[in-house]
Design a protein that fits this description.
22% of the residues lie in helices and 8% in strands. By secondary structure, the chain is α+β, with helices and mostly antiparallel strands. The strands form 3 sheets. The chain has a 6-stranded mixed sheet with strand order 4-6-7-10-8-9.
């Protein structure tokens, strides 16, 4: 009965080397097959049962049992030991030495800023130097009407000079023109430009009256190196507080080379606007930085103002006509002598 349920398995099964007659043959047919008699029918049925339970097909031999040693035999309770590994020490991110935070100084602005207007309706003005606690002063040829710029520009200058003063508290930083369109500049008309002076530390000094002494002449290598360190430090702070989004015009190949090498190691995001963060320009940029930032630079955070203190509301006043103020002329010309080619 069992073999008839699986007829396709029966024809060629073997057991103990004997070939079984086809299913369905009569007992007489079984008797006349060589070597098989009626008395062998019982063992054949038993063999068929064994075949159904796992005997091999004809021509195949049962695999010989493989003896395993105790060491080779797998054990479900045993696991392959792994060598202990020392925990990796987390790599600490290098913290910037600069805070890039605007100090708690009230910043003048027009009412358009309060109303949510954008540049040029909304500008911020550099706070008066007496409020800076010595962080900066106004450059002698810059008037207060030229101290307006985009809010991001003003916040970036305030934060950068604050960081710089902590490192070199004895160094005078003079903040020159921000927005100052007119015959003195080709730029300074989009709220993104500023001139910065490190008095006594830059390659050349603008001493006024057409005098431009060289600051590094007559000084030892150590003294020159110390001055260049002050200049490069300011450039590093400006770059850090703008996330590398800036361009500095300055003419000192040593400072440029060192600053570019440092800049390349900072992983600042690529700039879509500036090809290089510092390049040489005309001779005027031997005694000051001309720095440009992107228009979309975000405003930096500011420390909380003292309780009860706020930002003063002040209108943006137009500067006087250049001819009425000889000191507004560029310092590479005689006062009142307007050159055909304005400076940057």
């Amino acid at each position: 009965m069992f073999l008839r349920a699986v007829p396709h398995l029966a024809p060629n099964w073997t057991c103990s080397g004997r070939t079984r007659p086809p299913i369905g043959s009569s007992p007489e047919e079984a008797d006349v097959r060589p070597g098989i008699g009626r008395q062998n029918a019982g063992p054949l049925l038993g063999c068929a049962l064994l075949v159904a339970l796992g005997c091999s097909e004809a021509g195949a031999s049962d695999p010989a049992p493989v003896e395993r040693t105790e060491a080779e035999a797998p054990s479900p309770q045993r696991s392959i030991p792994t060598p202990p590994t020392e925990p990796e020490e987390p790599v600490a991110e290098q913290e910037s030495p600069y805070q890039c935070t605007v100090p708690a100084i009230p910043i003048p602005r027009p009412r358009e800023c309060v109303r949510g207007r954008s540049y040029p309706r909304c500008k911020w003005q550099m706070p008066h130097a007496t409020l800076s606690d010595g962080r900066y002063r106004r450059w002698r040829n810059t008037i207060v009407e030229h101290w307006w710029g985009r809010p991001a520009l003003v916040s970036w200058i305030l934060a950068s000079t604050d960081d710089y003063e902590r490192i070199f508290p004895d160094q005078v930083v003079a903040v020159g023109d921000l927005d100052a369109p007119g015959p003195r500049h080709r730029t300074h008309d989009r709220g993104v430009d500023v001139d910065l002076y490190l008095l006594g530390a830059m390659r050349v000094e603008n001493a006024g009256g057409g005098r431009y002494p060289k600051n590094y002449e007559g000084k030892s290598d150590e003294e020159v190196e110390a001055l260049r360190e002050r200049v490069e430090t300011l450039a590093r702070i400006l770059a850090t507080c703008s996330q590398g989004q800036l361009r500095i015009y300055y003419n000192d190949e040593v400072v440029i080379e060192r600053f570019l090498a440092w800049y390349a190691e900072q992983n600042f995001p690529a700039s879509d606007e500036f090809e290089a963060p510092m390049v040489a320009h005309n001779d005027l940029h031997e005694f000051h930085f001309h720095v440009t930032i992107p228009e979309d630079l975000p405003v930096l955070p500011r420390a909380d103002l003292p309780e009860g203190q706020g930002d003063p509301i002040a209108p943006i006043e137009a500067p006087p006509a250049p001819g009425s103020a000889p000191h507004l002329s560029s310092m590479n010309r005689r006062p009142g002598d307007w050159a055909a080619v304005p400076r940057e």
